[in-house]
# Entry
Amino acid sequence: MRIAQDFVTKELPKIIRLPYCLITGDEPALMLNTEQTIKNAIMNLGRYEREVFDVDNKFDWSHILTTGQSLSLFSTEKLIQLRFTQKPDAKTFKQLYECLDQTHSDLFYLITMPKLDRNAQKNKTVQMVERNGCLITVFPPDHTKLPQWIKERARQLQVNLLPESVAFISAHNEGNFLAIEQLLTQLQFLYGNAPISHEMIIELSSENSNFVAFDLSSALLTADIARIYRILQGLRSEGDAPILVNWVLHKEINLIHRMQSKMAQGATMEMALNDVWGSQKAMYRQALNRLSPQRIRHLTRMVVQIDLATKGQLNENPWNAIMRTAFAFAGKRLLPLSAEINL
# Structure
């Protein structure tokens, strides 16, 4: 069955009785919230043990078979979380199908993967999940529904926001759900459920905005080299994971590619820009005017290099590869692969 993300909490009693659930979308913070809601409901039953796997198209599926056949002395059932780091290719979809097709009543598979296009949703694996399990496609709320989403998320975290604070967070972090999640989590940690003033929100938002990975997006789109360097320097010094920064690069490159594809099929630039928030259109317009389809294809190959470097499969410092790719996105001359950048 398909379940809209707004009804996940209401449908939890049904979901946890199914053999598997697939969550798909392109907003990691929203997907993580949905995943945690289902995971917590299952683990609160008290009889599950849990294992988590990051899955790419080179994943060794024998690990899943071994895990599914082994239970500890202290649990009778197992929750297996499969977090796909990239869209599955045909072979990986087939392996996932075989895995789910052999599941048994002691297992629950909780799967997250990047947003599936129309063709991918026709794959027999996805159709089997929809038929026998649960398919949840996570869509970000538009700007008219964002304040309500913030209020609901704050309520879940027991963060007491004043109405003007909700409006401020919505305007200050438009479309940046990871930043909103980070802010609300910090408010929960610092103040619990005590009333939180507008001034406290402004101060904490200002502090957070310095080194949030998603600040990189606007710097990339506007080709602000000095800001790109400063943000990456801060992210590295703060200990942020390269994989998160690479996700930001990958997301922006894919979005520009999607807009260029629409324009190649006859859409105007303004029509292509309908994919982004109104306040962001000027930045994306600037990037579209600067980046050619050839450059976007090259950038796509570069984020693959970052992924390999992050996994230790390429003899390259991941942060050097990130800096080189970010500079290329901004339209600056590329550094050689072996170049060292001292951050």
In short: The longest strand covers residues 48-55. Residues 210 and 288 are 26 Å apart (CA to CA). The beta strands are 20-25, 48-55, 77-84, 107-114, 134-138, 160-161, 195-196.
